[in-house]
C-alpha cells in the first residue's frame, strides 16, 4: 500500500502497549500493525508549514515556515522556557490561544527514560507528553494554575534534575532500574523554595508505559531527509516519536513535521 502526504507528529493512544497512528494524506494508519514488516518513507522534496500550509525551504520549530514561527503563540519562547510565559500578565502573541494553553492547569512531573527528568505540560496532555518523550515511568509532582508558575518550579529544580531526554539511551532502552520516583518526588519537594511548595500534590501514582518494540538496537544511527531521500527497512518498534528499524537506523517523525513523503508498506 502507498499513501502520500505531509508528515505530522504521531498520534498515540495509551493502552497496555501504546498504540501509534500516522496521519498522512487523509489516511490514518495503525503503525503497530506494521512492526516486523518492511516500511519505506520517500521524501518528495517539498516542505509545507504545518500551520498555514505554505511551501518553505526550511522548517522552523519542528514544522513551521519562518513567518508563522515568528508570529504564532505556539512557537513563542515560553513553549521551550515556561518560566518566560507572560500570559498571566495579559501579554501574549494571541491571548485567546494562551487562555486555553497557558492559563490552564499545568503539571510539573518527574519522568524516567535513562535517568530522572523534570518537565512541564498542560494537565490535559498527560500521558501524551510522557509518551512523546519515550518515558517508561512518570509521576506528578505539582499542579499549577498557569504555565509561568510551572516553569518557576522547573527552573528551581533544574540544578538537581535534568530537563533533557537522552534520546540515544532511550532508543537503546537503557534504564536506571534503581531509581524510586516516589523518593525522587520527596527529594524534589524538599528542594523547592517555600513559596512554591504549596503547588506540590500528594498523588504518588506512578504511571508505567510500555512501547511496541520487538527489539531495541545496541547502537543507533539517526536518519534525516536532509541527508537521504529514502528511509527504509524492517520496522522493529516505535518509541517516543521515533521509528526504530531492524538495521539500527532510527527516524524522528516530529523532527520532519511538514515534509511531504510517500509511505509504502
Please characterize this protein's 3D structure.
The chain is of the alpha+beta class and 265 residues long. The protein has a domain at 80-208. It has seven helices and 14 strands. The chain is globular, with a radius of gyration of 19 Å.
How many strand segments?
14
Query: What is the spatial order of strands in the main beta sheet?
Result: 1-14-5-11-12-13-10
Structural class: alpha+beta
Number of helices: 7
Share of helical residues: 10-25%
- Mean pLDDT over the full residue set: 97
Structure in a nutshell:
This protein has helices at 66-71, 95-101, 128-133, 147-157, 167-171, 181-191, 194-197, and strands spanning 2-6, 11-13, 19-24, 27-30, 38-47, 106-112, 116-122, 137-144, 207-208, 221-223, 230-239, 242-245, 249-252, 259-264.
Write the layout of secondary structure elements.
Elements: E1 2-6, E2 11-13, E3 19-24, E4 27-30, E5 38-47, H1 66-71, H2 95-101, E6 106-112, E7 116-122, H3 128-133, E8 137-144, H4 147-157, H5 167-171, H6 181-191, H7 194-197, E9 207-208, E10 221-223, E11 230-239, E12 242-245, E13 249-252, E14 259-264
Parallel strand pairs: 10-13
Antiparallel strand pairs: 1-14, 2-3, 3-4, 5-11, 5-14, 6-7, 6-8, 8-9, 11-12, 12-13
Descriptive key words:
19% helix, 265 residues, 4-stranded antiparallel β-sheet, alpha+beta, 7-stranded mixed β-sheet
